[in-house]
Each structure stands twice: as C-alpha cells, then as structure tokens.
Amino acid sequence: MAYTKSVARQEFEQTISMFNCQIKFASLKKNAIPHDIQQCVYRNAIFQSSAAVEEFVKSILEDWVHLLHVHNKTVSSIPRELMVWAVAKCQKATFQNFIASGDENKLIKQLSDNCKLFSIFEVDAYIKDIIGLSEHISDRKYPSEKNIIVLFKRFGINDLFKSIQIEGKKDYKRILKSFSDVRTEIAHEHPAPDLTSLDVKEQLTEICDFIAKIDMVMYSHVVAISGRVCWKTSRF
C-alpha cells in the first residue's frame, strides 16, 4: 500500500506553515515591522520549530504504541529490540539494588514477583498490559542526534540517519546540526546574531524534509512489523 503521511507529520507541517506565514508577514517592507520585532518573529520560529520536532518524535512513536493498544496487538507485533529493551528496563532497579546490597534472596524474590517481566516473554501477551504509552520514549524525546539514534533503535531501526539518508540522498546529520546550532546561538548568545527571513525559511524547509524522511521510513517499518492499522493518520 502506498505511503500516507502520519498525523504527526501532518501536524508538524501545519505548524511550520504557520511560522512561514508569520515570517513572510514580518519581512514584507509594506508592513513596516521594526527590525527588533522581526528578529523576535524569526527567533520564535526557530525555537518553536525545535519544539515541534520534539513533539513529532514523541507523537510518531506514541501513536504506534497507542494503536498497538487499541487493536489488541501482542508481543509478536513489536520489534524484537523493543521487547529486549522492555525486559532490560523492568529489571534495572532490581539489579541496581542487588549490586548495592549483594542480597541474592532479595534479588530472586523481586524478579520472581515481577509479573510484567514474565509476560513480555509470552508471544500472545497484549502490548497494552506490558508497555505504557510513553515509558520508552519520554526520557529521549529531545531531538539531539544521540537521542534520535538511541530512541529509534529501541523501536527497531538500527541507524535512523542511515535509513533516511538512503531515502532522501542528503546528509541529515548535518541538517539537524545546522538547525540545532542556530537554536543554540539564539538561546545562549547575547546579543543573539541577526537572522534573515531567507535563512529561517531555508532552515524550516530543511527540517521539514528531515521530518518527512523519518515519516516515510517509519511508515515502512511500522507496517512491516505491526500492520497498516498501526499507522496513525488521523486523531479521530
């Protein structure tokens, strides 16, 4: 079945379209917007677009988990990597305590009482009973290169940047770094460097392409593992 945009991508692009309208309005000479106000509009577009990237990353993965819940999908419908990570995470605190105390009896009891741990190994166990909506996402949702690689690897994509580079024939690590560098300069330099409407539009165009390629790669991945019903295209 042909690719269809996720609702997460649709929402992201609507947000970017709104910022592009604001940038255009602020940059038109006939509107006589003062230079400092123009700069506020341009900087806000970068800041809020960064937040929109973070929201997209969160949404596209949470939407997948949500539909796994809705359609009563079982462990057999998730990536092996996610299953392994879930197994590791639900034992983490127990082993940390054991390393600190060396108490084998406590270790065995805590692991034996961990019903969730044993459920993960049952192929007919429902995902909604063992994997929460955001429990494997929220700690890595900030869209740095490192976080993106780690987060999508949890969900079965070994190297997201390699996958989207094949899809889009661009250096998306460079694109993300350029966008993040502009955001960092605005946040941490005073006075912040001036931006032009052309510079900001170019950054937004590139980051939109970055999101589009993630969406395309995720579509193929989700459909192959969980089925078309687990690809969310609407909030209704």
Which features does this protein show?
236 residues, mainly alpha, 10 helices
Could you describe the 3D structure shown?
The radius of gyration is 21 Å and the shape is elongated. It has 236 residues and is mainly alpha-helical. The protein contains ten helices and no strands.
Calculate Rg over CA atoms: 21 Å
Helix vs. strand class:
mainly alpha
Query: What's the story with the biggest beta sheet?
Result: none
Residue runs with pLDDT of under 50 for 5 or more positions: none
Number of H/I helices: 10
Order of helices and strands: HHHHHHHHHH
**Termini gap:** 21 Å
- How many strands appear in the DSSP assignment? 0
Helix content: 55-70%
Share in β-strands: under 5%
- Name the overall outline: elongated
Mean pLDDT reading: 92
Write the layout of secondary structure elements.
Layout: H1 7-27, H2 35-70, H3 80-101, H4 104-112, H5 115-120, H6 127-130, H7 145-154, H8 160-168, H9 172-188, H10 197-226
Helix pairs in contact: 1-2, 1-10, 2-9, 2-10, 3-4, 8-10, 9-10
